[in-house]
Structure formats: C-alpha cells, structure tokens
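Reading group handout, session on sequence-to-structure problems. Before we discuss, look at one worked example. The prompt was deliberately terse, the way you'd type it at a terminal:

> structure GTPase Der

The input record follows.
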Amino acid sequence: MLATPTLAVVGRPNVGKSTLVNRMLGRREAVVQDVPGVTRDRVVYDALWNGRRFKLMDTGGWEPDAAGLQGFVAKQAETAMRLADAVLLVVDASVGATATDQAVARVLRRADVPVMLCATKVDDDRLTSDTADLWRLGLGEPHPVSGLHGRGSGDLLDAILEILPETPRDDFGASGGGPRRVALVGKPNVGKSSLLNKLAGEERSVVHDVAGTTVDPVDSLVELDGQVFRFVDTAGLRKRVKMASGMEYYASLRTSSAIESAEVALVLIDASEPIAEQDQRVLTMVVESGRALVILFNKWDKVDEERRHQLTRELERDLISVRWAERVNVSALTGRSTQRIAPALNRALESWDTRVPTGRLNQWLNDLVAATPPPVRGGKQPKIMFATQAQTRPPTFVLFTSGFLEAGYRRFVERRLREEFGFGGTPIRVSVRVRE
Ligand code: GDP
Ligand code: GDP
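And the output record:
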C-alpha cells in the first residue's frame, strides 16, 4: 500500500514544462497561466501511461524575479528531490544549457532519487543534434521531445516509467487492509508538527514498521487509542523542516499531495486567530478531493471567552459549507482533547464508506418527492424515477429523472439525504442523469 510514485518536473521558466506536462497528461488544453502570484491548487496531476499510474508534479507557471532565478530554480530542484520519487529536468534545446541549467544540474546530480534530462522544443530533426551538447550536464542521455507537437513524448514516458519506482497502486485498498491513511494539513504555523509530535509521543511510539507491510518512509505510523493510523507525507513535519519564505507554493503542493494520498484529512485551524482564507482553501481542497474530514481547532489553550464568541460567528460565516464535519477543540501544547481525535477519524471514515441499500434509498426518495416535488420548469414537472448510490468514498448518488432538476432542488435532496442517513464527516455528491 505505497502511495503512487511522483515525478517532479523542474526547470527554468518558459522552457516548456507546462506544455510538456499537458502533453504527458494527454490534454490539449491551454498552457497554464504564467501570471506571477497566481495560485494553482492543483499542481499534482494523476497520470497514466501503459497502464501504470503515477503523479506528475508541475512546477511551472511561477515566475520569480529574474535576479534570483538561479537560486530559485536550485531551491525548486531541492524541494522536488525531497518530495518526488524521480525528477525530470527540462531544458530548452533551442537555447542550450544556460548557467542556470548547469546550477540546477549540479544540485540534481546529488539527488538520491533518479533524475532524467529532457530537451524540449525539439520540433524537428534539425535540433536533435544540438541536444547532444546537453550530455555535459552530467545527467545522462538528454531525451529530445516536443511538448508542442508530441514528438518523442511516448519514448520519454517509457523512459520515465523505467526510472520511477515500481509501486503497485492500490487505490485505498479494501477496508481493513492496513492502517487508515490520514493527511495532517493546515496553513503554516497552525501547529501540525507540534501535534504530530504530541500524538506520536516519544519517538519510539512512532511505529516505523508493521509486520507484513512496507512502510513508505515519508509516512508516520502513529498509534492512537490502540489503533494504528498512517499519517501520510509527514517527513517534512517530523524533521521540522520549515519552508523558506516564498515557499507557500510548495506548502500548497505538499498539502494537495497529502490529501490525495489520504482517506481522511485532519485540517488544523489556529483557533486563537481569525479563520483565514487559506484555512478555507485547505478545506475546499479536501472537499473537492472527496476525502473524509475532521476539523481540529488547535491552540485552544490560548482561546479566551471573547475569542470564543468571535469564533462562533466566524463558524457561521466561513465554515457553513463544511458544517457536516466534526470539530474538535484541541491543544498540541497541553494535549487537551487529543484523545477525541481517533474516534472522530473513525466516525468520518465510517460515513465515507457508507453504502445505502438501493431499496431503502428509493423508499425514502419516493416519500420525499411526494411531499416536496421538484419545481415545474417550462410547464413540465420533472419526475425523479430512481436513485442509486453509485459509489462510496465519498458516497456518490445518481438521480435518474425525466427532466432538468434545478440546483436548488439538488441541494435540497442533498440536505435531506444527510438528515436521513447522516454522513457526518464526509462530503457527498449528487448527480442527475436525465432520461429523455
Ligand atoms: P514553462 O514556463 O516551463 O511551463 O513553459 P511553457 O510550457 O509555458 O512554455 C513556454 C513557451 O514555450 C510557450 O510559449 C510555449 O508555447 C513554448 N513551447 C513549449 N513547448 C514547446 C515546444 O515543444 N516547441 C515549441 N516550438 N515551443 C514550445
Ligand atoms: P506547523 O507549521 O503547522 O507545523 O506549526 P508548528 O507545530 O511549528 O507550530 C507553530 C507554533 O505554534 C510553534 O511556536 C508552536 O509551539 C505553537 N503551537 C503549536 N500548537 C500550539 C498549541 O496548541 N498552543 C499554543 N499555545 N501554541 C502552539
């Protein structure tokens, strides 16, 4: 049960990283905006080639000021080496190896993960000979490719699969197959590493190995209440590695990749400060990824009467869209209420795994529709014929109807589904299929 291997794509701005990433993802959509400061939450993509899954981490689309370029790209490479299972350095063949490329190559030569070199913008044979010059970067064979036209991209992907570690992907596995996977996330300084250390207690209670399982070294196995949980992607937290300033971008990469490889997210919010937009962004990532959710209000030891009142108002205003998530007020400092975390995780996961039998679902739906039929549209009354829960993790429902259902009514159905069946701690999805 290892996480999907991740390939990080690094290189100077404008060498064609995003174009290449889109090509490798098999998409023809426009290159991601190159506007400085634009936040892109989804920078880790799921890729599939020859039946093998891997993650592509796109480090494009971020333009540092030209002065600090060399240092920036080197830092980018270092972060990539730390977070990814393999790194692809992209160099622009039409320009050749610049001083910056060389500096980055120097960093990457020290990597203890495999590194591959590719030369982009090789749109035709003319440039292929120029790529030979790139051998001197000391990273082996430069793979020529044109992200724009696709030339060479299949060969590149074949070569990438050879250097990526073989990690049998097991999409969450069967329930009961190994410890549940938890992402401990939240904006910087909310207390993630403090909490992890508190929960893990002495280093010896962090189980690094469990009989019969191989443990991904970036994860921590932590025993809570006699139950082992796998806290994913905690290498950075454990070592208390702090992101340099300006590294929020990578903090967000890490967050999104941790959430993707987890089943349930523990989102930490600093209760002593006003709820920030960044807190909401993390919550949105969890909901959009369809993972179960538990919210921890940390630093509760610093919360006084006045702050508690403010917080109540902020909850109404800012966290209304995740009111179904359980909230626990904790303190990583004092250990307050940390024993409530494991039961909350289990409740959220149970909802996430819930399947409502079709018979019961339709009985409930018939009663609901009889009492409150969908609004008439264009003189017609849409009929809801049938509902089924197509998936769990998270629970996903499909309504088969004879006509268009307004968003308001869909939300109404969703609300009533929760009232009837619970689903505390998990997002649910309702989609509509119109049968003519
Ligand atoms: P990034 O900043 O490294 O992500 O680079 P982009 O993917 O945004 O590409 C920068 C510019 O190079 C854009 O104008 C692309 O259209 C162009 N470009 C990218 N790949 C190729 C390629 O294979 N051939 C050619 N001719 N141009 C390319
Ligand atoms: P991270 O960036 O989310 O990993 O946050 P840290 O664990 O490094 O914590 C940031 C700061 O908040 C540190 O100075 C911690 O000592 C402090 N801190 C963390 N949890 C608590 C808490 O529950 N109460 C108080 N008073 N301070 C805390």
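Points for discussion. First: The two ends are 43 Å apart (CA to CA). Second: The first strand starts at residue 6 and ends at 10.
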